[in-house]
Design goal:
Structural class: mainly alpha
CATH topology of the largest domain: Arc Repressor Mutant, subunit A
Shape: elongated
Largest sheet: 2 strands, antiparallel
CATH architecture of the largest domain: Orthogonal Bundle
Number of strands: 2
Oligomer: single chain
CATH class of the largest domain: Mainly Alpha
Strand order of the largest sheet: 1-2
CATH superfamily of the largest domain: Winged helix-like DNA-binding domain superfamily/Winged helix DNA-binding domain
Helix content: 40-55%
Strand content: 5-15%
Order of helices and strands: HHHEEHH
């Protein structure tokens, strides 16, 4: 996404018009109008109301969400095919696998919505603190073996009408939690 469109989406957390955005961003209103039309085509902004101002109609729009997931295609080489990566322990591989998951979920979600069905999924999320790199490596190996045992137990390639699911398990260092006022006491 272009930086200007990102700024516009941020500014449109509260409804605004092309004229108000042009003033706020210090760019010509015509340029803002062009980008607003593109954002609207992509479903990133929506019309809130139209106001008559003299001989003109002012369109008031707002962002359709408080946050957005960046398309994998915008990540360039970070969004490469995980199958092409050689190092499954690299952050590049994890990003590629996560990007593929986001791409596939977007398509599946749209299909489920159109069919009026629920999309079966599962999310497991946890944090673990390791005493050492050796403990982290042992955990990773044990987790991989446990998942392999479960896959071997439940995977049935020959089941007619069986539905294939993709399982993604990833691990990365957690960001430090921001300090709160109670932490400072």
């Amino acid at each position: 996404m272009r930086p200007m469109r990102s700024q516009m989406l941020e500014a449109l957390a509260e409804p605004g018009s092309a004229a108000s955005l042009a003033r706020k961003l210090a760019v010509p209103r015509q340029k803002v109008n062009y980008h607003l039309r593109e954002l609207e085509k992509q479903g990133l902004v929506q019309l809130v109301e139209e106001r008559r101002r003299g001989n003109c109609v002012e369109r008031i729009v707002r962002a359709t969400a408080k946050s957005y997931v960046v398309s994998a295609s915008a990540l360039a080489t970070l969004a490469s095919d995980p199958g092409a990566a050689r190092d499954v322990f690299s952050s590049r591989y994890l990003v590629a696998a996560a990007a593929r998951t986001i791409r596939e979920l977007a398509v599946l979600r749209e299909r489920a919505d159109r069919a009026g069905k629920k999309l079966p999924s599962l999310t497991l999320q946890s944090e673990v603190r390791f005493a050492s790199a050796a403990d982290r490596n042992a955990f990773s190996e044990e987790l991989a073996n446990a998942v392999a045992r479960l896959v071997e137990k439940y995977h049935d390639e020959g089941t007619e009408g069986g539905r294939r699911f993709r399982l993604l398990v990833g691990m990365h260092p957690a960001l430090a939690a921001p300090k709160t006022d109670t932490d400072k006491r």
